[in-house]
Write a structure and sequence with these properties.
Distance between the termini: 32 Å
Number of domains: 3
Helix content: 40-55%
Largest sheet: none
Mean pLDDT: 87
Oligomer: single chain
Strand content: under 5%
Shape: flat
Number of strands: 0
Order of helices and strands: HHHHHHHH
């Protein structure tokens, strides 16, 4: 992700940026972006299968077995995931995990005549509902992901063929999985 990519889009040097939802307000703010007023938000394009790209876009919370005061931890999680807390996040331009907060944020932006943020909230809500997926539930996922994605990016920018970009990390992923057994 690097901050320079955001600055390049905001400077008008990049035509399309698939980014974390909270950057929408940054891109449409004349103080931080030359493209403010001339930028929109859409769901990620659908691939050959008809599915849109997505990612799990919400925080996850847990209480560990070693927690000395699980009731306090649970109370904090309830606070963070409450509608009021989620609305604070939504007003800052992020996509809240609660569907009721997503819908309320879109309505609130409409009421304020902030068409850009109302549209962004609606688009992000639809994407979260229809396109999000969680990464595979593997203990080794971070290591696998670190082996895989840099190689795939090399294919995207033309430094490797698609076949080579898949074959190279396949060997590394196989080694990772064999070592974990």
């Amino acid at each position: 992700m690097g901050r320079s990519r955001q600055h390049n889009f905001a400077a008008g040097k990049v035509a399309l940026d698939m980014d974390w939802p909270s950057f929408a307000s940054f891109y449409n703010d004349p103080k931080s972006s030359k493209v403010a007023g001339n930028v929109g938000v859409v769901r990620a394009p659908a691939g050959a299968s008809g599915k849109h790209a997505g990612w799990s876009g919400s925080h996850g919370f847990s209480i560990t077995k070693a927690c000395n005061r699980p009731e306090v931890a649970a109370s904090f999680i309830e606070f963070l995931t409450s509608r009021d807390s989620q609305m604070v996040e939504a007003r800052l331009g992020t996509i809240p995990s609660r569907m009721d907060a997503q819908q309320a944020a879109a309505q609130e932006f409409k009421t304020q005549n902030n068409a850009f943020m109302a549209d962004a909230a609606s688009v992000f809500s639809a994407a979260a509902k229809n396109d999000s997926f969680a990464p595979p539930q593997l203990a080794q996922w971070n290591e696998v992901s670190n082996a895989l994605w840099p190689e795939l990016q090399k294919a995207i920018i033309g430094d490797k063929s698609s076949k080579q970009a898949l074959d190279d990390p396949a060997r590394r992923v196989n080694d990772i999985m064999e070592d974990s057994q």
